[in-house]
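Pasting as-is:
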Amino acid sequence: MPKIKTHKATVKRFKKTKTGKIIVRKSGQGHFNSRESGNTTRQKRRDITMSKTLYKTIRSLTPYA
């Protein structure tokens, strides 16, 4: 059976933890952050866990990651 190609954009955006959860960086962090409140800026520093509904799709795009 041939190897499956990894979707490189997905690998760059998502990370799998040891327990199998998928971590993604919170959106809206690129620029224009100076106008945000301190509370919002602090919340944007955290990574968030993806929902289980998208897990199967992301897993199929990253078979070896």
